[in-house]
Amino acid sequence: MKMHIDIVIPVYKPDEKFKALLMGLADQTVKPDNLIIMYTKTGRDDRFPDELRMTGTAVSCSDASGGTGFKVYELEKSEFDHGGTRAMAAEKSGADILVYMTMDAVPADKHMLEKLTGIFEEDDTVGAAYARQLPSDSSSPAERFTRGFNYPDKPVLKGEEDLEKLGIKTFFCSNVCAAYRKDIYDKLGGFVRKTIFNEDMIYAHKLIVNGYKIYYAADAGVIHTHEYTPMQQLHRNFDLAVSQAMHPEVFGSVSSESEGVRYIRSAYAFFKKEGKPYLIIPFVWGCCFRYLGYFLGKRYRKLPEWLIKACAMNKEFFECL
């Protein structure tokens, strides 16, 4: 029996990458039943662009499933939350499988959705699966290394028994492109409603401690890269660390510092192999900003409000606390 699949994409200021994402989804060998867009408006009079609405209607196979195909829900900027917005979308879906994507993740080929969701028909203990993130052709060596480090070419099935070996990586599951079995999602209460970051890893922790598995689908690829400046890395890691500090039940018993050491050592080996060992200097400089953001974020409760807002990427989050 065919599993029904809904794709959820939070969207803010859509660009050419988002249009490429829609076109990539329309070409998939497995079609979603519905495409749910959670559109955060830039202002009161903003509306989802008609051109993109027309492109989006070509994505789903709603005529076969009885769904309505392309759905857009508009949110005020103050209403957006990484966990809450995605949880709201889940409540609007009656699918068997929920696939979450970000608006800048472009399918690498027409088999992405098929490869990502196929595991659910093979193994009913798998509660989530996430795709491999690939660099673009124009990516820098540092970005190519980072994608390869975090997203290798071998699939992995992770469970509670892997905690000692993998540590925090056991809970790694990126909503840049990830699929969830809806019945398990509902049973476990889904995404946390209020979080600055890491809603995917917080839910992944629920899966693991309740005896379910997470699958890394290495053959399901999306093109997704970011060339962050050192300050952008600081802001991003500050938010990441705040989410960890707010959820000690998830991150309190596992450390990520040792992973950082391995990250730098692996980067130097990569640059050396590329014949550009000198690239380790700007790379380490960026890592210093990452660590500073992480260090401050873990201790955000002790910081003055002005410093929190100076460091945060999602400043609006702290206005609502």
Descriptive report:
The chain is of the alpha/beta class and 321 residues long. The protein folds into two domains: 5-223, Spore Coat Polysaccharide Biosynthesis Protein SpsA, Chain A (Alpha-Beta Complex), CATH 3.90.550; 230-319. It has 16 helices and nine strands. The chain has helices spanning 16-26, 50-56, 62-65, 82-91, 112-117, 119-122, 141-150, 163-166, 182-188, 199-209, 230-246, 248-251, 257-273, 280-298, 305-311, 315-319; strands at residues 5-11, 34-40, 69-75, 97-101, 106-107, 126-134, 156-158, 177-181, 213-223. Strands 1, 2, 3, 4, 5, 6, 7, 8 and 9 form a nine-stranded mixed beta sheet that branches. Helix 1 links the parallel strand 1 and strand 2 (34-40). Helix 7 crosses helix 13 (257-273), helix 11 (230-246) runs parallel beside helix 14 and helix 13 (257-273) runs antiparallel to helix 14 (280-298). The longest helix is centred in the last third of the chain and has 19 residues, at 280-298. The protein is globular, with a radius of gyration of 19 Å. 40% of the residues are buried.
Write the layout of secondary structure elements.
Layout: E1 5-11, H1 16-26, E2 34-40, H2 50-56, H3 62-65, E3 69-75, H4 82-91, E4 97-101, E5 106-107, H5 112-117, H6 119-122, E6 126-134, H7 141-150, E7 156-158, H8 163-166, E8 177-181, H9 182-188, H10 199-209, E9 213-223, H11 230-246, H12 248-251, H13 257-273, H14 280-298, H15 305-311, H16 315-319
Parallel strand pairs: 1-2, 1-4, 2-3, 6-9
Antiparallel strand pairs: 4-8, 5-9, 6-8, 7-9
